[in-house]
Amino acid sequence: MTDIPFYLLSDKDNRQAMNAAINLPGVNTVDVLHRNIIPPGPVMLTKNYGSKLMDLVNAANGLVLLSNRIFRIFEENNVTGWERIPAEIHPGNGVINHDYSLLTITGKCVTIDFSKSETVIKQPITPTGKAISIRRGIYFDMNDWDGSDIFGAENTLFTFITDKVRRLLIDNKATNILIEKTTDFELY
């Protein structure tokens, strides 16, 4: 990997933010994320916890919903490597929210080279806990990346973004979005 900065996109795990559960029995979510399987019609989700709808809603099992506002920003700025599947969030009381879509990835970087990740000893969180060994950093061969602004790796649920996408999300004050540099990401 060169000095080009890449980032991973996820949710902040904010307990106030709505977290929803997607119902796709018997379907591998990796296949949905990478569009190997495309659910028919809008995907339906029910509220897990939280009540505040933000720009990113964790859809469980590694999938995320983004507000249609964010998808419009992607379209207006020619962001590549993604598609969306319309979604219906059922938070309860017969309400249905249609302002979100499931993010799916068309951009590719083929495979991650976990052997390049640094081994780090993390100190325990509590005084009685034990130190653990983790891996830091996610690396891939730049020759395998197709150049998309949003992309994924085979058989993973990682959503990679370029600095262009990071800047768009920050400049547009996207909510409940966690952006981590790939070199700092910790694998437990």
Describe this structure in words.
The chain has 188 residues and is mainly beta. The protein has three helices and 14 strands. Strands 2, 3, 4, 5, 6, 7 and 8 form a seven-stranded mixed sheet that branches. A four-stranded antiparallel sheet has the order 11-12-1-13. Strands 9-10-14 form a three-stranded antiparallel sheet, with no helix packed on it. Strand 11 and strand 12 form a beta hairpin.
SSE layout:
Elements: E1 6-11, E2 19-22, H1 29-33, E3 43-49, E4 56-58, E5 64-67, H2 68-76, E6 82-92, E7 95-97, E8 100-105, E9 118-122, E10 132-136, E11 150-151, E12 160-162, H3 163-171, E13 177-181, E14 186-187
Parallel strand pairs: 3-6
Antiparallel strand pairs: 1-12, 1-13, 2-3, 4-5, 5-8, 6-7, 6-8, 9-10, 10-14, 11-12
Supply database-style keywords.
mainly beta; single chain; seven-stranded mixed beta sheet; 3 helices; four-stranded antiparallel beta sheet
User: Helical content, roughly?
Assistant: 10-25%
End-to-end separation in angstroms reads 22 Å
Radius of gyration: 17 Å
Q: Proportion of β residues?
A: 35-45%
Report the total helices. 3
Task: Give me the oligomer status.
Answer: single chain
How many individual β-strands? 14
Low-confidence stretches: none
Strand and helix order = EEHEEEHEEEEEEEHEE
Principal-axis shape: globular
Mean pLDDT: 93
Structural class, by secondary structure, is: mainly beta
Strand count, sense and barrel status of the largest sheet are: 7 strands, mixed
Short description:
The protein has 188 residues and is mostly beta strands. The protein is 12% helix and 35% strand.
